[in-house]
């Protein structure tokens, strides 16, 4: 009998401990940290590769938020994966409601597939070992068992939760209990005793089993999530649960809401041991752990020159980074921020992020280069009453029809062809031609060509914030209220 698999990719979280590369508007799951593709893309390809003779893998369900919807869809398009749906959370309510939404979507047409649930921000070094472990878990889950993946600990890690599991019969272990993130002494004790495993945050279970379990253990979450699902609306690949109804859902994780309550209950839960080079890349020291190192234990990404350095991670993105005689450091350079930290203090980067948030600084939310569904813009310079941007528009796309109350804009085409709506005129401009958009004029920028359009935009005016925009028409559903 063929098992029907529905991957569920939980694509939330902000990755604050990987600042300044990870930002609220471009969190770590969308970053390329350990290869040519993002963590999200790696996760999607990993679960889709589970298809084999007796396992059919359906198109995945992705759960993310409104802000990241186009980023998620575009990254899937880049790897030729079409999602069944992208479920959009209007507010964060942790992972238990997210999985409940996915389970409701999975059973919508009368199916009851096995859900392979994974977060979008992990790495797995050994794809073969991952597939083997996951296929064993899938076959057990098809019979009604909940299977959680646990990782044999390589060190006394204090940043992970642990699973206490014992061998009863192959290929999975019986879960006795879950334990919280320990202090270092307790983590050392866990390794000495054996039988403790890192909680990888990956789950395999039938959609109906999850719905029964959440109804049994957290009927409040089950009822309010179902109410939000009943009020859903759809827009192409995007599915939006009812906003007010979703905001009423209690916030809780998959572990707290269900998994930790399963041992000794009517819901059998077992653990599959995953020995495949797993990491959740929760902080910069974890990134250092998984990347290739030179003979002195250094990891260099980007344009780096170093002399007499040891066990140091340097990640440069826009300029030369030079180091002399340092060890055990993390140095992360971006166009608008530089982080220098002791590698052993990686968990404390969140304090910097909290300070940025309290001070309402843009470096908390956005990079200098900001991705949009139509392309991207890079704010290359700004001063009193002016801002300069480099803008790229993908072929066949356009920005919204809009106006600004406080700024004028000058556009210079440097590559490609621009179709510019400027009041009641429509202009077609090519390289080295320019246009002026007065304050308050309704306008739109579009790329009718087959290559990316690049322009330089010079803004001038009394206020240059991104919120000075009124949209009249927008193919991405961002009409101003």
Percent helix among the residues?
Answer: 10-25%
Output the strand order for the largest sheet.
21-22-23-30-25-28
Could you say which structural class the secondary elements and strand pairing correspond to? alpha/beta
| CATH T-level fold name of the largest domain | Spore Coat Polysaccharide Biosynthesis Protein SpsA, Chain A
What does this structure look like?
- It is globular, with a radius of gyration of 24 Å.
- It has 11 helices and 31 strands.
- The N and C termini lie far apart (52 Å).
- With 481 residues, it is of the alpha/beta class.
- A hairpin with a 2-residue loop joins strand 11 and strand 12.
- The strands form 7 sheets. A 6-stranded antiparallel beta sheet has the order 21-22-23-30-25-28, with no helix packed on it.
- It has 3 domains: 3-279, Alpha-Beta Complex (Spore Coat Polysaccharide Biosynthesis Protein SpsA, Chain A); 284-356, no CATH class; 369-473, Jelly Rolls (Sandwich), CATH 2.60.120.10.
